[in-house]
């Protein structure tokens, strides 16, 4: 099943890199999961490869967190389905740089 | 018309400073990649429009950038630096084994003959090579697999490979330096390496004259004398005249021989510059005075250069890759500080002025002389 478009809000530094003013929308073929969303983002924006997850291990970077629907999904399995509201485009998938310092 | 382009890497972006051959009026362009740490930018000696940049972030990891138009526009290139095989362990600060982990690219050294070939020195210490303009990177693992690797330790800044020197007379001969392992030389293009640290004395290791373990901060050479190397070690300024086989101390009358940068005049192979720093505990210049020291005798005898530099209430540091020289007829010398100033001297160090004063902390300075 194809999604109607998953809304993703990236951290501002990464938005600057791809020239996005706000949310981006990605079309996912197949199950909507953390892995499929990031795969699609990396395919569209190759310059972001390795910024959200390690390029070799594909594990989430330690200072990157994933939120949606007021839940912290950072520790969810990468292949677990994201909330239906994210898959339907009703809620954004939030990629957040962890607060560190300052 | 001749001119210079100064590539400045800072804690929060890159800046490109340009001037004509007089070097008295500057244009400041940037920040490029605002918010990211730019550890190093360096242009190809073959094609000055080709510039490589190391962009990184504690949050988002390592990115690599390449410009083909002198820094006007940039394209992200390959950012995967896979160690060859299972990298094993090095020593942690307390001497316990610690896994080798890639953290960032500290230094980029473009080939002297091919703009698509570039070397990268990384933390945890290893040397990588790209032959396709930075798209892909392959480790030259003979260095890390030098038998001493498990005994290497990180310096305060991390276990970084920060210096890469290519012998212009023989590109298969290269020198690299690692904090805190020491200096190494290859004669076969990076396949095999020899530790070249005889003559170094480091009180912070159990055997002060050990083969490896020395915290070498930076090494430089003059291209016309590629067997003569100058080194700023954690403490001590050193010199070798046999390609690193043997080192002797040339700290001479320096007020302190702790420091990070060291560089050589473009036209005078025996004229050397350092910026003495108070101590390993006090990473700022002595007595509130920013002084470059110059030796015209290849070391031992040093003179302070102060004209135009702050001589009171100054407590900045100058990091290891933050000094460079241009090759105009009257050699220009440049350095950047942790306080965000970039200073230039158009006359070999006699007179200084700030090109720009309020950048983020400067990590690196490189100069391109444009014809």
Could you walk me through the main structural features you see in this protein, from its secondary elements to its overall organization?
The complex is a heterodimer of chains A (102) and B (371). Chain A has 102 residues and is α+β, with helices and mostly antiparallel strands. Chain A has helices at 12-18, 34-44, 84-87; strands at 6-9, 24-26, 64-68, 71-72, 93-97. A 5-stranded mixed beta sheet of chain A has the order 2-1-5-3-4, with helices on one face. The longest helix of chain A has 11 residues, at 34-44. The mean pLDDT of chain B is 97. Chain B contains no helices and 30 strands. Chain B starts with a strand and ends with a strand. Chain B has 371 residues and is an all-beta fold. Chain B is globular and about 50 Å long.
What tags apply to this protein structure?
heterodimer, A: alpha+beta, Ubiquitin-like (UB roll), 5-stranded mixed beta sheet, 5 strands, 22% helix, globular, B: 371 residues, Methylamine Dehydrogenase, Chain H, 4-stranded antiparallel beta sheet, 30 strands
Layout of strands and helices, then pairs:
The complex is a heterodimer of chains A (102) and B (371).
Chain A: E1 6-9, H1 12-18, E2 24-26, H2 34-44, E3 64-68, E4 71-72, H3 84-87, E5 93-97
Parallel strand pairs in A: 1-5
Antiparallel strand pairs in A: 1-2, 3-4, 3-5
Chain B: E1 3-10, E2 13-20, E3 27-32, E4 37-43, E5 51-57, E6 61-67, E7 75-77, E8 89-91, E9 97-99, E10 104-110, E11 118-123, E12 126-130, E13 138-139, E14 160-166, E15 174-179, E16 182-186, E17 194-195, E18 216-221, E19 229-233, E20 237-240, E21 248-249, E22 258-264, E23 272-277, E24 292-295, E25 303-305, E26 323-325, E27 333-336, E28 342-345, E29 353-356, E30 362-370
Antiparallel strand pairs in B: 1-2, 1-30, 2-3, 4-5, 5-6, 6-7, 8-9, 10-11, 11-12, 12-13, 14-15, 15-16, 16-17, 18-19, 19-20, 20-21, 22-23, 23-24, 24-25, 26-27, 27-28, 28-29
